[in-house]
Every structure is written in C-alpha cells, then in structure tokens.
Amino acid sequence: MKRIVIKVGSAVLREDNLLAVRRLNNLVDLIARLKNEKKLEVILVSSGAVSAGNTIINLDKKKVLNRQALAAIGQPLLMKHYKKRFRDHGLKCAQMLLVAEDFDSRKRSANAKGIMEILLSNNIVPILNENDVIANEELLFGDNDQLAAHAAYYFGADLLAILSDVDGLYDSNPHENPNAKMRHLVTSLEPEELEMKHTPNSEFATGGIVTKLKAANFLLKRNKMMYLSSGFDLTNACDFLVHGNHKNGTLFKK
Ligand code: GLU
In the chain, which end has fewer C-beta atoms inside a 10 angstrom radius, N or C? Predict the structure, then answer.
C-alpha cells in the first residue's frame, strides 16, 4: 500500500458535549506512525465540524441553516486541534472542503487532484470535510462516508479505513442480538443490505452502518478495499494498518 484515506466520524470526535481532543490526538498519533514508520501517504476525512461548533454556541440543530452555521464555527476549531497535534509530530496539515459536484465535474476533480498531489508530495496531511456551508441538496454528499469513498477512488488511494462508532459489520444487529458475530471479510454486498434504513447512533452523525456499506459497495465495484473499525479504541486499526495484522474490524475486499 502506498496511499490511504482515513475517515473519522462525528460521534468519535465528541465526548461529554465537548470536542474529544484525546481521541483526536490518538488519531493523529496513528497517522504520524503510518507516515513515519510505514511511509504511507495519508489523507484524512474528518467529520465533526457541526459537533465542534455546537461546543461553542447552542443553535437548534433541526434547522439546516443552523447546522451549516455550526459547521462554519466548528471547522476552524477542529483544524486548530489537528494542526497542533500534527505539529507535535513535526507534520503539517491542510484543509480541503469539497462538495459532491467537485467529483462529478471533470474540471473540478482534476483541479482537486492536482492540489492533492502537491500536498502529498510535500508531506502535508490533507484534511477533507464536506463544504457544509455551500452544500445544498444537489451539492450534498449527505455524509462523509460517501465523500471518503469518492476521495479514496478519485485520489487513487489503495484503501479507505473508516474509524467509527460502529466497530465492524455484524451478521445481525449487535444492539439487539448479544450473539451477533463480526464479519471479518466481506467480498460483496447484497442490494437489501444497501437499502436498510439510515441509523446514525449520534445526533451529530448523518451516517450509520448503511452509509458505510454504500461506501464499501462503491469501492468494491471499483476494485478498491475498505476497512471498518472502531474510532474510540484504535488498537484494531493500529494492528491492521501499522502491523498488517487483521485481528478485528471488517475488511471489504473482492
Ligand atoms: N460534514 C459534517 C461535519 O463535519 C458531518 C457529516 C457526517 O456526519 O458524515 O460535521
């Protein structure tokens, strides 16, 4: 592997109504290891702007415009923490805010790709998020799982790792069935699995397991891999990504 995309969700970056700085730092530490020890190029897709904004000001999150305003408030706060921790590792980061249309348009995606190559070749960690402020219905990815899948494909990554409040795909709902078993390897997905209801576990997340499966399906169809694992505890992700040891978490691979 040469280039990977790591996506972290809003639920992971929030704890007790505050930005979960300890988890954010652990994530940056993992990325630094991947860059320094494994010599990987890492692109980070980070949610959490709305949730970070909400730690500064309380607006009614049911209103779309309020959520967009919260994203505008929260995005620089997120970046401040990323920048600080990356600096502790002697690394620099950059922000790229994208909307779905950027990947639909050949001109815009070529532009974004050109910028991505400059950042990566200068050892900078690009941090992507949806451009929530201008993302209206037509422009919206809706969730960063799709943004991350598109980024992985269009920016030529070998793998997308989603670090989430869902630690893998189970053979039945683990919230309802205590005997549910994790599926370690998934080679294809059934249409029914992609049509299930969206079930975000956190009030700030727009995803849930279905959006992860859609992202996996998008990549499987294009012969790319996706790995889904816990973002709360990075032990499994570290085993897999740093040591090549797949102990837990789900790998989607043809
Ligand atoms: N872009 C939104 C944020 O940063 C999150 C989208 C999602 O839940 O995936 O807050």
Answer: C
Number of domains in the chain: 1
- Dump pLDDT digits (tens) for 191-221: 888 887 666 666 666 667 899 999 999 999 9
Residue 11 Cα to ligand 1 midpoint, Å, equals: 10
Instruction: Please say if the pLDDT value at position 230 is more than 70.
Output: yes
Q: Which atom of ligand 1 is nearest to the CA of 78?
A: 4
**Ligand 1 mean position, distance from CA 79 (Å):** 14
- Kindly state the percentage of the chain with pLDDT values over 90: 79
Residue 122 burial (CB count, 10 A): 9
Q: Are strands 18-19 and 14-15 parallel, antiparallel or unpaired?
A: antiparallel
**What is the C-alpha to C-alpha distance for residues 59 and 222, in angstroms, rounded to an integer?**
40
147-177 pLDDT, tens per residue?
A: 999 999 999 999 999 999 999 999 988 888 8
Q: What is the largest CA-CA distance in the chain?
A: 49
Name the closest-CA residue to atom 7, ligand 1: 143
- What's the length of the chain? 254
Whether the predicted model's global pTM rises above the 0.70 cut: yes
Angle at 181 between CA 175 and CA 182, to 5 degrees: 95
CA distance 201 to 12: 11
- Domain range for 162 is 3-252
Which CATH number covers residue 141? 3.40.1160.10
- CA distances, 109 to each of 116, 145, 153 (Å): 10, 18, 11
Query: Sign of torsion, CA 215 206 103 151?
Result: negative
